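Worked example 3 (structure in, sequence out).
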């Protein structure tokens, strides 16, 4: 399958993203203090399969508390506590096409530091979405999602994004060194994050389509601060 997606492929990718949105809405009503990361991940996986997914795009990530600072944490018996922050990264395969979404939510409250970091990541995410244009170099799109975080004195040790299609990681790679030219019809993620080791992490990720009019996010799941 090519980098440039057909109308049919785009619709299937949108459908997979919509199922991801529904899963996120469901899990926000499911999570309770005392649950383990594994219980939450299993519930998300079950939701996908009960609603038509043939597989997961990747192993669901649920990182609570200090585990949210791990970019690719594995769900564990770590249990949700009051005032925890939870990083969720999830996706499914629906009709052969993948979704990939990340959200960060809060349990029972949010500290001023968490709020500041969350808002910084959200503003950076939105800036990259609003300023991505066709025929930009991938490394320049990456910088759209990195500059604000760098300017604030932080960084993150992964690319801003990656292509999505029948596989969850495809071309183009939206990274600091990528010389790829990103064209109209390309589907990729925008996923800035800040990870403070031993404290907490925040990532906000959407998959979307680059067109002549800009970047269109497939996900409608809220990017506002959510406190359960």
């Amino acid at each position: 399958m090519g980098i440039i997606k057909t109308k049919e492929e785009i619709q299937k990718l949108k459908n997979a993203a919509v199922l991801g949105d529904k899963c996120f809405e469901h899990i926000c009503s499911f999570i309770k203090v005392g649950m383990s990361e594994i219980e939450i991940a299993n519930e998300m996986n079950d939701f996908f399969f009960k609603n038509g997914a043939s597989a997961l795009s990747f192993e669901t990530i649920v990182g609570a508390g200090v585990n949210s600072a791990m970019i690719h944490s594995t769900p564990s018996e770590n249990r949700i506590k009051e005032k925890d922050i939870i990083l969720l990264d999830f996706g499914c395969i629906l009709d052969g096409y993948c979704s990939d979404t990340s959200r960060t939510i809060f349990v029972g409250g949010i500290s001023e530091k968490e709020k500041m970091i969350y808002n910084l990541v959200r503003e950076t995410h939105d800036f990259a979405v609003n300023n991505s244009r066709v025929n930009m170099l991938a490394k320049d799109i990456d910088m759209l999602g990195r500059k604000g975080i760098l300017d604030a004195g932080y960084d993150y040790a992964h690319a801003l994004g990656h292509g999505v299609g029948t596989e969850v990681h495809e071309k183009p790679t939206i990274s600091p060194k990528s010389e790829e030219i990103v064209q109209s019809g390309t589907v990729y993620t925008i996923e800035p994050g800040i990870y403070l080791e031993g404290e907490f992490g925040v990532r906000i990720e959407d998959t979307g389509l680059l067109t002549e009019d800009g970047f269109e996010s497939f996900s409608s799941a809220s990017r506002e601060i959510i406190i359960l």
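Notes: The two ends are 40 Å apart (CA to CA). The helical segments are 7-30, 37-50, 112-131, 138-144, 147-151.
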